[in-house]
Amino acid sequence: QLQLVESGGGLVQPGGSLRLSCVASGFTLENYAMGWFRQAPGKEREGVSCISSGGSRNYGDSVRGRFTIYRDTAKNTLYLQMNSLDAEDTAVYYCARRPFALCGLTWDSSKPSPGADFDPWGQGTQVTVSS
């Protein structure tokens, strides 16, 4: 059974940091492109970052320079290190697998339906940035 389980969300003050984790089971994470997405109340799903099987990293414009995506192959776990958080980062964050080695364009929020060909998805973890 393919499964992704996120953790690490919480309440953080503006300017703070959080690290999200996504543990994969049922497949080898490094063989696929893996993405982080987020969705705030009343907003469309947004692609945050994607890492390809080969290790190439992609970031959305709103998080580039502040967030870092990486993985630990021994733990079969994907991470998202988030620094310099602000209120605009408040959302439910999801990890998902793209059943291909490359991220392609479907992770990118500038394209229609970001994440449409990603499967499975985790259950999400809430990140709230507030003072």
Report a brief summary of the structure:
With 131 residues, this protein is an all-beta fold.
Question: Mind explaining what this structure looks like?
Answer:
The chain is mostly beta strands and 131 residues long. The chain contains no helices and ten strands. It has strands spanning 3-7, 10-12, 18-25, 33-39, 46-51, 57-59, 67-72, 77-82, 91-98, 125-129. 34% of the residues are buried.
Please tell me what the overall shape is: globular
Q: Biggest β-sheet: count, sense, barrel?
A: 6 strands, mixed
Instruction: Report the average pLDDT across residues.
Output: 96
Overall strand count: 10
Global structural class = mainly beta
First and last CA, distance: 40 Å
Q: Helical content, roughly?
A: under 10%
Strand order of the largest sheet: 2-10-9-4-5-6
H/E order of the elements? EEEEEEEEEE
Query: With helices defined by DSSP (H or I, 4 residues minimum), what is the helix count?
Result: 0
Radius of gyration: 13 Å
Strand content: 35-45%
Low-confidence stretches: none
Topology:
Layout (H helix, E strand, L loop, with lengths): L2 E5 L2 E3 L5 E8 L7 E7 L6 E6 L5 E3 L7 E6 L4 E6 L8 E8 L26 E5 L2
Parallel strand pairs: 2-10
Antiparallel strand pairs: 1-3, 3-8, 4-5, 4-9, 5-6, 7-8, 9-10
